[in-house]
Predict the 3D structure of the following.
Amino acid sequence: MDALRGRRAWRLPHECKNNMKTNLIRTWLCWMVLLATSAVFADEWFVPFERVADYKSKGPTHCFRQFNIDWSWISLRPDQLPEFLSEADPVALAEFCQRTHVDGTVVMAVPHHGYCTYETRVGTKFPGMKGDWFGRTIEELHKRRIAAFGYVTLNWNWKFIRANLGRDFIHGKPDAAGVCTSKCTICLNAPGYLDMVDAYTREVLENYPVDGMRWDILQTAQGCSCDGCKRFYREIYHEDLTIWDKTEPRRVHDFYLATTSRAVTRLRTLCKRIKPSVEIWQNCLQSYHPNHLDLSRQMDIAYNEYGDPFRLLFIRGVADKLAAINGLMNKTPTEPPVALNHREWRTCLALGGRCYSYYGHKQTNPKTLLPGETMQVWHRDQLAPFYEMVSRIEPWVQDAAPVSNVGMVFSERTRFRFPKYDRTPYINAMEPIAKDCLQRSLPVEFVNCLDLDKPAKRISRFKLLILPITSGLLPAEIVCLRKYVEQGGNLLVAGDALRHDDHGREQKDFALAREMAVSYLGAAAAKNDLAVLGSLPLGEVPRPSHIRNIVRTESSSGQTLLSVTCDGASFPLLHVKDLGKGRIAYLASLDSPALTQRVIEWLSGPPPIIVDGSEGAQAVLTHQPRQKRWILHLLSDGDCGITVSRALVPAAKVTAQFPVDGWSYRVEPEIDKLRIHVQGSAQDRLLALE
């Protein structure tokens, strides 16, 4: 296998400089071998390892049918390690992926066990492994045009934990049988630990033609005082760490974020220095984890662990990425596997997701690393047909982004106002709004406050920007919002948004109090629902119910359209103030989703598309700028009607239909809209508009 090493193989001879004849013969032989090799491996996907440095990877951004046989949780006892990989056949794994119509798969180089599946100098191979399983698996996958993504565990390295038990940077311990669990944590500041992870990563990238690089379990021990923590603490705070002060819990959380942030930046820098073209990502840079979400911007693709359309839209916007790996399988390793949620998967695909299926340890054979019988059936009957369909519609989902005229401004600094920097209250404020809009076929686009001044983001294209309790904006970001409104945009400020600084400290008033023409008086909660008075200028407004939490304000100018009476006094519920060519609306409570949605409809105006049909009728419109077309994904089955606003989507006709059989459509063009009537019950329908 050394002959296939990227840094050593097929070098022209230099040793016998005094023997010209020998050199010429060796040179001729080398060229003959190279020519033969190129003939055998003419397929651009099968790249021999001597050309690792020149290999053009196909990252996860371009793979729509990804898969991971998750075997990090099998053969956990040390005495079971010899059976691990003992019967693993790279050909069998590659053929299994091919039968499932997979186009990209994770290949674990260093799983949680802490042993390596490749030829290593810095680590230890699995004792039962025969040959270079990692390298041979990549070869077999590339023969079948399947991308291979390298994987290195970042925290749960159980071999390292067992070898360092008793050290102050190891938190938790294995059970009596030597089995480590998720409660065993390594401090990422442990002396030499990140050096080891770096070394694993370097070996994989320099010696193998991987198509991407992923690290797993981005976390560290909170409140650790090891020597590494003490050095890093002094480096960032310029003082000694003696003992963690429980009266200053913020410092503990700040240090945690600094530690995980350093690990992310360090690994990214290493990879981009070795091979800039290889796409990278971390699994724990998502809404479910406490890590700083702005770190996701350093990755090449966003990552959403579970198949959830809201979380997918959210992390794509936060990371400012066109695509996101979107997990679409069991959250737990239970038997039997859950049924494939076809509509949810299809929705995520339309919203920019890259299908990613995985499952837990109980379905994997530790010797062969292949799924058991139950999962084989699931793959054959559910996943393979779905992935086969995805392979057919890929031309219509590549480089596509959802079309929306409504944006939701996100600031990671909002979480700093909550105990333990808990992001949950913030997520809970955004999620109902985004889900209700998506149900109306309007996918809200999340805009990171870091992008408000970016010309490429063009926030002026949004008819409405929403700030649901969003806080922590810097002065320059506030200026961007003010300019957006003055130039004709609509801004909806909700709850106590814009009332905390970038450190989470409460301020006396809203950052845009003067422009909003309302001043903060305090928050109140009533025992009974509050009565709502007034109306919106767009017809009947359904009487909102269950409004009990209200931010009390007083207005100085503008117009109060809705008000509530609380504790004998009247306060604005919805207040509007013109500013330049636009307006700022303030909504004092998010308790009523129906009211919130009605306000959004009023401020944003007609959406790009309107879907009429039976209850639950839904579609998503995406744009492919390179192809100069729009794709209408019909997510619900049965007959429906779609109205496309030509003011927002200047399309004139339908140019393609998928599938070609089992349904029909009829187009009625008008001056300001396209009316499309759909009939039939075919699944996974879409139309291309130009």
